[in-house]
Amino acid sequence: MGFSNWSIYQTDAWLGLLEETEQVRPLRLGIFRGEELVGLWAGADFRKGPFRLCGSPMRGWMTAYMGPACDTVEPLGLLKAWCAFLRENGYHHAEVHHPSFTAEVASQAGLEAVPGDTYVGPIPPTEEEILRLFKKSCRESIRKSVRHGVEVEDTDSPAFVDHFYYHIQDVFGKQGLQPTFPKTQVQALWKRLKPTGRLITVWAKREGKVIATEMSIIGNNILHAFAWASLRSAQEHAPNEPVQLLALTLAAQKGCTRHEVCGGGQYKLKFGTHLEPAYAVLYYRNALLPICRKMYAAAMRLRLKRGGFGVQMPPRPPLDVAHHFEPY
Prior knowledge:
Elements: H1 12-22, E1 25-33, E2 36-48, E3 51-56, E4 67-70, H2 75-88, E5 93-97, H3 103-108, E6 112-122, H4 127-133, H5 136-147, E7 151-154, H6 159-174, H7 183-193, E8 199-206, E9 209-219, E10 222-230, H8 240-253, E11 258-262, E12 274-284, H9 289-303, E13 319-320
Parallel strand pairs: 3-5, 10-11
Antiparallel strand pairs: 1-2, 2-3, 2-4, 5-12, 6-11, 6-12, 7-8, 8-9, 9-10, 9-13
């Protein structure tokens, strides 16, 4: 991309994915100092009813962060320039996630900062060194999985998408929820990124059945965890830990030196990560829009409840690799 701090989420491939799956219009904005182009800002434009919105990204887009790729302008200056662009173009509401935008910087720019979590950690060059960073309990789980006959593989099989989403439904179903993203989004991600070598897909098998899956994305020597899941009916075999070890090992072979896992969950610390604060920085054109945003978010949460009431899904059984799934 030409700037040292670019991310996979700012590339044309990812913007094209959002255009396909979220029905938004990609924005590729230049950051200028005088006549000189000093950075780029990625985002997307869309409408909800009468409101014009700008996401960079919006929550729910399965996108960790976007915002600027710029080496020479301080974060406060970037946020102020972004606000000027939003005002000049009549946006009602906008949201940006970027590691350089802290709560203090957002406050100085007159914007709201909503806290979140990101777990980050180094990726050493070898499997042995990666394993040494894992917590003792994690290493014990890997040994247990070996005793139970679990096999982990890097796979290019198109059947991966079906098994992955089957597992994701099981994880959300335990909480009485539907997945926050449709299966078609996973297929679009596979179609766009798998041929580029930037998508790592790993599964764990036992007795010929798939019991755990993981998808991760590579960009600028960083491994971004998209999602991983294991079936509740197979968790006694401890498949999550060896799946994560293989994903990190493959990433190391591709030159990655860092991995990032967005969202809460202290269990992520066992993979040699530490917690770093992350913020969604919000822009509103007037004081009524935050209320509208909260009402919309509440409606979306209700839509995710299985059966309308949050009915828990029974644990799903493991399926053969060659299982025939219904088309989608």
